[in-house]
Amino acid sequence: MAVSYFALWYTLSADDAYLVWYSGDEDGVLLDAAGRIPSFASVAEVRRHADDLGLELVDEAPILHALDRTLAWIDDADNTTVNCGNLLAAWNLFDDVSRSVGGSFDADKAATQDLYMKLFGGGDTANSVLRPEDAAVYCPAWSEEELALLRSTLRAGLSIFNNALMPMPAR
Predict the structure, then answer these.
(1) I need a labelling partner for 167 at 20 to 30 A (CA). Which of 2, 126, 130, 133 fits?
(2) 95 closest CA partner among 153, 39, 37
(3) Domain coordinates of the chain in residue numbers?
(4) pTM, whole model, 2 decimals?
């Protein structure tokens, strides 16, 4: 299968940043020679980096991964409202990052598979694209134990992500 490269937009620490995400037989993020994720302050910079490497980015607007919102939810243990779309996007990004850097995000899939499926089922894709027109919108209910496991899983993923980032200076 051919590999396609995309600019991925995320917010973290109130900053907008971009990296190269790819999709092929496996999805992942582009790493530098040291195994870090080059992160850029603009789409123009991430495109320049891809050009320098001879990679052609798919020409589409990057979709926001609102990691600041993810972190705020993780840190607010009293918040029982789950934004499935936001948390699913973060989960998928952390999974791709972990695979790329050899991390261990979501190592216990037996414990987390049901959480992932609830996030997926409650997300935009499942509710707007996959749901039959006459079916009710799925809004999952979460137990305290599930919320705690969801928070700890996402916190581990965010840690892997943060530790792998290498902010690149503008040229």
Answers:
(1) 2
(2) 153
(3) 4-167
(4) 0.92
